[in-house]
Design brief:
The chain is an all-alpha fold. The protein has one domain: Orthogonal Bundle (di-copper center containing domain from catechol oxidase), CATH 1.10.1280. 31% of the residues lie in helices and 2% in strands. The chain has a two-stranded parallel ribbon. The chain starts with a strand and ends with a strand.
């Protein structure tokens, strides 16, 4: 059993060890394997193939296992390291300690949005982006997207999502208007609501975090640790609520072979959502 801490409570030594483990994964090539996996499983609901990671009920369990695999890789480098979480409702400005020179570095410069500070700046020589949607080799950020401004979500917006007692609803994709899963994942629905929560954070950071290769920015892991924590809080707030859909969808449902029911194994690990409901034997949040 180990703990995941709020990033604001990390000691200087904890930050240094986390950064060191991430950089070692990058040097070994293992880090880029995680980025490639995320790109591979970023399947939209406009596509006809199965989707386990996004726009789907298994958004939370898939990313829980993904984070566990990443954490295991980090701990093979340094057993003291775990993935902290970033509560962006509290640490919501570019001056937050998260973006300090000794941790994740700051915003991108004007023009090409290249990150120039911190251990993941291209000029430090240890962090090169490969296989992205652009030819840029450097980490990019564009806090708040000044060209089309976006704000970080508020605690009230998170609380509204947490108050929904139903886990997910048909059509089990980006168009689900109710249900905790899509209220947190945050797909905008024309005429109903705008982009929210999880997705809006990706947009607020922008740059490398704005696409399927979002783990190219190490803040991805802290953001998704917070997603995992919110799922944990939702489960505690609604102890009688369960993951939905409970069973494989009927043959006439267009989502039948595209989303994963409670006991259907998800790729690439062949593990079902039901096996990822409880993390308390592995880690706890503090």
């Amino acid at each position: 059993m180990y703990s995941r801490k709020d990033q604001r409570n990390l000691t200087r030594t904890e930050k240094k060890r986390l950064v060191g483990a991430i950089l070692e994964l990058k040097r070994s090539g293992r880090y880029d394997e995680f980025v490639t996996m995320h790109r591979q499983y970023y399947v939209t609901d406009a596509e006809g193939r199965p989707r386990a990671a996004h726009m789907t009920p298994s958004f939370f369990p898939w990313h829980r296992r993904y984070l566990l695999e990443f954490e295991k890789a980090l701990q093979a480098v340094d057993p003291t390291v775990s993935v902290p979480y970033w509560d962006w409702t509290r640490d919501s400005t570019p001056s937050s300690s998260l973006w300090a020179e000794d941790f994740l570095g700051g915003n991108g410069r004007s023009g090409d949005r290249q990150v120039m500070t911190g251990p993941f700046a291209f000029r430090q020589g240890d962090w090169r982006i490969s296989g992205g949607v652009t030819d840029d080799r450097f980490l990019r950020r564009d806090f708040g997207r000044p060209s089309a401004p976006v704000t970080l979500p508020t605690k009230a917006e998170v609380d509204r999502a947490l108050s929904d007692p139903v886990y997910d609803t048909a059509p089990w994709n980006s168009l689900s208007t109710t249900g905790f899963r899509n209220r947190i994942e945050g797909w905008g629905i024309r005429g109903t609501r705008g982009v929210a929560n999880h997705n809006r954070v990706h947009r607020w950071i922008g740059g490398s975090m704005a696409g399927a290769g979002s783990p190219d920015d190490p803040v991805f892991w802290l953001h998704h640790a917070y997603m995992d924590l919110l799922w944990d809080r939702w489960q505690k707030a609604h102890p009688r609520s369960r993951y939905l859909p409970a069973r494989k969808l009927p043959a006439d449902d267009p989502q039948r072979d595209r989303v994963f029911a409670r006991d259907q194994p998800m790729p690439p690990w062949d593990v079902a959502p039901s096996q990822l409901m409880d993390h308390t034997r592995i880690y706890r949040y503090v």
